[in-house]
Amino acid sequence: MGRIYIDKYTGRIEQTDIYRVRVILKDGTVLENLEPRRLFPLSNLTMYITLLDETEQEIAFVRDFEELDDTSRKALESCFSEYYMIPKITHLISSNEKFGSLKWLVKTDRGDIAFRIRNRHSDIKLIRGSNRILIRDSNDNRYEIPDYTLMDMHSQHLLFSYL
Q: Domain span at residue 103?
């Protein structure tokens, strides 16, 4: 069986578990227990989604969220919100540098968090063509600033003193 492309004309996707979905094709075929994964989780959040079986083999593929019906799109978004749980930074409360390491105290959508950044040049990334910033701390946890222009001036000042 070749790659099955899923869109609103070929089938629909239903969430069955926190990270799992089922695909119901237009001909009535049901593909169970599939895990959706983004092929480009940092740069392209709504395109190129693979659906893997228990052995990590690709069973189906979604080219673009825009090609799905609303129910299918919501099922994938729900799975991704748990699987790719990256706290969104809303404010930088404080920042200090000691021995080349940054210590940040931030406010996120999941509460206040303090963490260290080893290398500001490689661990703080402004995504080209957007206002989105990705951050990796010294424990390899990831954080995101969806749009730095929406942050308060204090947060922007602290942020840009390290970019």
A: 89-160
